[in-house]
Amino acid sequence: EMGIAHAVVTSVNRDDQPDGGAGIFAETIRWIRRLSPETSVEVLIPDFLGDDDALATVCDAEPEILNHNTETVPRLYRRVRPKGRYERSLGLLRRAKELDPGTVTKSGVMVGLGETRDELLQVFADLARCGVEVLTVGQYLRPSAKHLPIERYYAPSEFDDLREKALALGFKHVESGPLVRSSYHAERQVDGVRHTSPLNGRGDSSVSGDLRKAE
Among 107, 117, 126, 160, which one has the highest count of C-beta atoms within 10 angstroms of its own C-beta? Predict the structure, then answer.
């Protein structure tokens, strides 16, 4: 009834659940398909603490896009993502592609937390090696005084440069800009994927070259 073309499903971390909430993600995907077969589904998932079975549960539901954000560079993980592990996040993205090659994988990074350009480019290279096809790069904005401070603001030209460097590494779609978030213009990213292959058909996991800058 709402005419939603693309649904993005996310949640807070549910480490209190035996499967990390994987079953809820999977059931949500299936219910969207039942109620609105033409709606493509993107899920933004946690790392499930490295639980392969939990990841398989989500992949079995065949979301069109599976997103897991790496968030930052390895050196800053302890400060930015104290419960996360960089290699664990990479492993999840790599494994997701192995479990379901038809799912487009996606990840995102926030800048302005004290990382260097070289560190960012290394993260991009790591993600590309894991088969990630869609990348988002956005400016970290401090939600409150209790959160980490902003080390610096990136200029629009720097976001453009990062986008070009990411594309050169093989990413098929990159959103890079100050206001970009993981679901930023998600429907536009989906249009890029559909350009080569309808997402609901799941016949081709490639993403088109219809790439546009974040505004």
Answer: 107
